[in-house]
Each structure stands twice: as C-alpha cells, then as structure tokens.
Fold this protein.
Amino acid sequence: MPRVRITRRLHFSAAHRLAQPEWDDEKNRRVFGDCANRNWHGHNYELDVTVAGPVDPDTGYVMDLKDLKDLVNRHVVDDLDHRNLNLDVSWLEGVLPSTENLVMRIWERIEPHIPAPATLERVVLWETPRHWAEYRGD
Amino acid sequence: MPRVRITRRLHFSAAHRLAQPEWDDEKNRRVFGDCANRNWHGHNYELDVTVAGPVDPDTGYVMDLKDLKDLVNRHVVDDLDHRNLNLDVSWLEGVLPSTENLVMRIWERIEPHIPAPATLERVVLWETPRHWAEYRGD
Amino acid sequence: MPRVRITRRLHFSAAHRLAQPEWDDEKNRRVFGDCANRNWHGHNYELDVTVAGPVDPDTGYVMDLKDLKDLVNRHVVDDLDHRNLNLDVSWLEGVLPSTENLVMRIWERIEPHIPAPATLERVVLWETPRHWAEYRGD
Amino acid sequence: MPRVRITRRLHFSAAHRLAQPEWDDEKNRRVFGDCANRNWHGHNYELDVTVAGPVDPDTGYVMDLKDLKDLVNRHVVDDLDHRNLNLDVSWLEGVLPSTENLVMRIWERIEPHIPAPATLERVVLWETPRHWAEYRGD
Amino acid sequence: MPRVRITRRLHFSAAHRLAQPEWDDEKNRRVFGDCANRNWHGHNYELDVTVAGPVDPDTGYVMDLKDLKDLVNRHVVDDLDHRNLNLDVSWLEGVLPSTENLVMRIWERIEPHIPAPATLERVVLWETPRHWAEYRGD
Amino acid sequence: MPRVRITRRLHFSAAHRLAQPEWDDEKNRRVFGDCANRNWHGHNYELDVTVAGPVDPDTGYVMDLKDLKDLVNRHVVDDLDHRNLNLDVSWLEGVLPSTENLVMRIWERIEPHIPAPATLERVVLWETPRHWAEYRGD
C-alpha cells in the first residue's frame, strides 16, 4: 500500500537558557555564549510534525489533521507556549533545552499517541527561521 | 555517479470539498468538519516537484528546469488552476480531493514524463503554509 | 500623545467566483478570465487589521490584541472561513467578491467595534502572496 | 527633490514578561494572560527601520545601509539580543515591554543618529510573524 | 468615492555593480565595499507595484491585475530579468543602479501607463528580503 | 545512540552565467536561454547546511552552530558573496555554475571540516525561492 507523509506546523513562544548547572558562569558563558544569559532569552518556535502511513479509502486521510493538531497541542504546545523551558515544564526537568534535546523530548511526547497504522516519521523544531533541528526516532 | 536532487515550486488556486458521495450531509460534516461545506471552499496550493539524477556534464543539469516546469504545467497545473477539484478535472473523477489523494494522483501524472536517467523522487503539495502532504512513489 | 499602530494577521480559506449575474458566460469569461470559472476556485486569504491610537499607560497596549483577534474572528473570519464568498455570507449578498470589494466590506464589519480612543486605520487582504488590496476608509 | 524611503530589517531574540509591578499576580494574569507568566517567555523579534530622504547623486544612496545597520546594532540590537527586556536593558528600565512601548523606545534610540538630510520615518517591530507594531514619531 | 489600493508583486534576477565611473577602484571599494566588485554580483529582486483608485462597479476592480502585470512586465521586468543593470538596459544608461535609483526609474517607466482614474501610488523594490526601497513619486 | 540533524541557513548574493566555453553564443542561448546572457545575471542564494550526529550530553549539541556557521562562512560564503561565480572563485574554476554543480562543490568544501562524530548529511542551495538543488554526498 502506498505511504503518504502529512505534516502539520504549530508554533509556540518560550524563554530558555543554555547552561549546565554544574558549571560556573564563566564556563557556561564560554561554551554557550549569549545563550547562557542568566536572565534568559527566548524564541518563536515553529514545530513541524510529520506522520506517515497508508491513506484511508473512506476519508482520504493518513490521519485526521485536526486530531494531529489537537494531540500535539495537548501533549506539547500547551505545556511550552509562553513558558520558560528550563523552569516551567515537568517533562523537561533536568534537560538542557538545546534545540536538539527539545526535538527528541517532543518526539517522545507525541509518538505514543499516533494511531496505527500511521506512524510518527519526523519532528522538526525551528528555533529561528535560519536554524532548526530534526529527529526521526533513530 | 553522484546524484543531485532539484526541485521546482509551482502554484495553483482551486476550490474543493471533502465529502463521500455515499454519506449523508450529517456524516460528512461530522467526519470532515468545515471541509465538507456544500458550497465548497478553496486554497492557494504550492506544489514542489523533486527530480533526482546524475548531472549532465554538458549542461550542469539533472534536467532542464524549464522543461520540468513546462511538463508539470501541461500535465497538472493547467488542469487544476482556477478549477474545482471535485468537478472540473477528468483525472480526479471519483477521487476525494484530500491533500493525500491529490499528491498521489499528481505523482502519477508527472512520473511517466521525467526523461531518463532522471527520476521523479518526491512530490510535496502544500494546502496551506501550515499543512502539506508528501509522496515518494512507494 | 504619540500614536502607535498595531497589526494582527488572521487567515481564512474560501471559494469564490468573479462574474456579473447580468452578463452571459462568454462576457464574464472575457472580462474575468479563469476567475469566472462556473464551478468556482479558491484561495488562502491573509487578513491584516491595523489599529492606531495612544498607548494605555497601564497595559502598554493600543488595544488588547486578543480582543482584536476575537472581534475580527467573530465579525469576519468565522463567516468566511471554509465558505463560498458568493453564496454563503449574508453580508456579501449581491457583492462581486473581488479583493477590492471584500476589503471594503471587511472594513465596514470591523470598524464599529474598535474601542475608542483606538481607531481602525488600515485593512489589507492578501488573495495570494503576490496580490493584495488595502483599504483605509477614505 | 524626490524622496526615497529605504528599509533595513534586523533581528534579535529576547525574553520578556508583561506585568505591572504594582499589581498582584492575579490581576496581571487577568489583564495580560499567558504573557504575564512569572518565569518569562520570549520571541524572535524582527525590526524594520525606514529612513527617508533625497538620493545622494554621488552614491545613489539615501543613506549607506551598512551605516544604518551598524548604528541600529550599536544603539538597539546589541543591547536587546539574547537579553531579558524587563531586567537587562538600562534604557528600558521601568518600561512595560509591550510591542507598542518597545517600538517607541527603539525610535528614540535611533532617531538622533540618522545623518541629515535623511530622517527616520518609520520603525516596525514584529513580535511574531502575525503581530507587529509601527511607530512614525508622531 | 472610496479609494482602494491594490498591489501586484513581480520578480526578476539581475547582475549589477555599484561604482562611479569617474572614481578609481580604490575609492569605489572604499565607498561601496563589496558592491563595487569589478566582476559584478547579483540579486533576486522583488517588485511591488501599488495602484490606487475607485472601484469599478462592473468589475469590482481598481484595475485589472492582469493588465497591471502585463504592463509592468512589458515596460520593466522584460528589460531587467536575467540582465546586467549597468550594461544591458537602455533606460538605465548612466544610472548608478542602487536600489534607490532603480525604484525611481521603475516608477517613471510604469506611471504613464496606468489607466485613469487609477493612479500609481507606490513602488517598492526588494534587493534582498532584508533590504528594500520605496518611492511614491514625490 | 540517537542521531539528530541540525541545519544552519546562510546566504550570499552573486553573479553568474550559464555557458559552455566551447559552444558559440547561439548554441549557449539555445541551451541555456536567458541564463546565457553574456553580461551575466545574479541571484540571492540561500544555503542550508545539515549536519547529523549524536547529541553531546554536556552541551546538548550535535555541533556548535556558531562553529558550523563560521566554517561555512570561511570555506564557502566569504568566497562567493558579492562575487562572480564564473570569474572570481578559484575552487569553481572550469565549473559551469549551475545550481547542481555549485551544491556538489560546496559539499566538498564543507565536508572535510565537520568534526567527528558529526557528519555532513545534506546541502541545499536555493537559487530562488521557487528553485533549489540538494546534494547528500552519494
């Protein structure tokens, strides 16, 4: 059966800071530059979630996009939007919120909820329009 | 020989409606929501066609992009632009025009015309800037 | 007091057709080209609503953008999104839905609801990313 | 002499929070919603600076765009990028960092440095791609 | 009668160089930096042409956008696309092709052809997505 | 170990011309159309460089994006920006500067400098927003 990939883009705005708690300020500043600013900075993130699977002959859908949007909002965006990624999110506790780490955690939050036979194929997180990270679960 | 992928983006504007003819209005509305509106709605579609192959040493081309643009216009865009995807397109007869179904039919329309040794690799159809479908022929 | 302009962008997808009911098909086709297609076509519209006024010292706002978004949704977008602009919208009855006519009618729908001292300054309606109309109420 | 307007777009990423220090948490949350989150949130801001004036016959310039970029970086962007707009910026002390207030303060920072006969005409600050504020100095 | 503004965006790709023929290389390099490179450089230009006027009650148009596109292509884009702006364009002879000078010359090329009662209101020329010039004929 | 892909977008503006030196003008014009214009034309190129690898537990990085940006600037962008791709670039000597050939040469310039365990995965070069080439090193 042919497989089609569908993608839904969502967005959230959040504050964060890159710093290792066990390092002192000077080392954090040396490794992370301005991203280590003690008082945080922030971004408008764009999140692209791609699901792959066969097309249902009744609906013409791999998966209802409204369902996809709702589940990503419920499990990811509602927790991150207008929040501090270092302080406010239980499932990011102890995680250094680099784009790489975020995109892997977001994958884990979404993957169990994609209804078979569709599967999560790719998550892309844009920190700015000129920098993004992609995770495919492998 | 190294393979390069080239992509040309084209666009068209069309009306459509998501509904199963054998279902009644109430069921179509329940399954497809506002997309089932009896009087249609529409989109500005963007269509990305990717062709892969070796690079011709004379031209530096995988394939002449003007030829690619012309063949996609002739076999796809000219039939869809400023049309109703449910009513006006012979090669979409009986097809529920979801983004998934459209992208597979568009692949079939383009694939036979790509001149060897180049091959069609990927077709992406954007229904909005926040929702798109991708097909790779498998 | 200094005046600041704030803009909120919203979007909707709709079908429409350009045709004068008193003209025959051939004349409509000659004047409006493909836009006269009997079975409709459609667009992803973007709508930019600009409000101007002094800045409230308590909130730092010309106007609460959530209120602006809510009122434009209530009076405009909810009526147009996933609809047919020729058939489905009571306040567009008898209006030929060109971008020019739409942007003037949308102004009239929004203007009475902007809370003083803020005033509606400009409405821009994008039919495609390469074509838009702007109205300033004069 | 004819007047031409030239614009340079710059960007910065910053954290902020909307809250009145004299209000309690509950009132700030009621007025500012999620923007009042105690632990901040943030944005990728885009800043468009427009300068108007006659065109120098020797250079064809209203103003050297590199000079414009350098002065906006020196007086605005270097102070805001990867910073907290409530805590880290001396010239924003006591300012509630709404887009409206920011765009007026940014105007004041840039305006004295535009070399005559060019004049600052407009500053636009984008908080997201769907929300922005504009100030023209009046 | 209410006035509406409509805009059509067109594009062209061209080579150019900023240099005063009466200056030596060293001075041109000092004033224009890399833009003075003797062997040229180039850009993808975007051109926004805005026409204002009353709305024709028969067509709902300020002006037929296809006519606007055709006349801008005929008088401007066909001469500039895939050309060298310093060498290949008769109506740019002796003009230093800065964005400012280009936008004024483009205005002059378009303005006589706008059919009354519509008038040319604004021409914007984007040299890059982060730098543009605007001319309003005054 | 999970692999994440990170991408950094950079840009440059350059002039070029498509022509085979051993062909006469008429044949070059026939094969390459306007791209063969003897006096060059040019583009705003966007360059997306994707690096894949495991995430460093100390930094949360596949690779420091500032390092990636610096090395692509040093080995690619500094040589191409505001230059003529046919005349000014030693490592493009004898190369017909089609998007396909450029993206392969750019890969070769970057690939040796990506620090293990990260690897270069994909280079995408946009000649316009509607046309791009991609190379993955195979």
Notes: The radius of gyration of chain C is 17 Å.
